[in-house]
Amino acid sequence: MSRLDSMLRRLSAQRDGLNWAADRIRDQPGDVLDLGLGNGRTYDHLREILPDRRIWVIDRMLQCHPSCTPPEADFLEGEAEPMLARLAGQDARIALAHYDLGFGIKEQDVAEAARLSPALAQVMAPGGLIISGQPLVGFEQLTGPDSIAPDRYLFYRA
Question: Which domains does the chain carry?
Answer without folding.
Answer: 3-157 (3.40.50.150)
